[in-house]
Amino acid sequence: MDDARFADTSDQDLLDQHVAGEPDAFGELVRRHRDRLWAVALRTLGDREEAADAVQDALVSAFRAAHTFRGQSAVTTWLHRITVNACLDRARKAASRRTAPVDDAERLDQLLEPHESAEAPAERQDLHRELLAALATLPAEQRAALVLVDMQAYPVAEAARILDVPTGTVKSRCARGRARLLPLLTHLRNGGGTSGDSMMERNRTQRASVPPPAEPHDAGTSDPAAVKGGGGHA
Length: 234
Description:
Layout: H1 11-20, H2 25-45, H3 48-65, H4 75-97, H5 105-111, H6 114-119, H7 122-135, H8 140-151, H9 156-163, H10 167-185, H11 196-206
């Protein structure tokens, strides 16, 4: 639940209060940003368990390293950077041990938001599945850039700050990723009436937030481990 004490408190002040010993300040940061961190992690990793673990790892790291934050970027950018790094670490490890095909139906079902799976028109659901299946074939760095820019609608400059790379690198990763996706999605121009590029554009304009199916009962506490329950374990 929201803590009325923090209604007018900025993210920076919450982090400062956490460092100073306020027990509930970090929990409020988690409440504010958990959904978007979860959305990025889920789309980057394509697996609910892995995404939940990555978000938990990231928030534990942020909880412990809060005193090192120097305000050179927004707190939300800092949190996203830690989360993306945790995802990329897991993606690299998973790549070396992956045995299941990327188009496994059960795995793809997990990529769809609960509300979208239940309510989206069949055509959009199928297009979304194919887009995400193709996205899962990309190298982790390209996937992360495309998730931020094309699916979460972050400006390139903000994505660059999150990924801690130059804007040119983000543009290059997006361009290479789109080039690799195009042959996988060209068939969507026929029959479905929607190209892969326009599907990415539709995602870009909607900035989907993917909340966990069940909110942890203690999400307002300062314990970052509580987030794992909010990761939507199936």
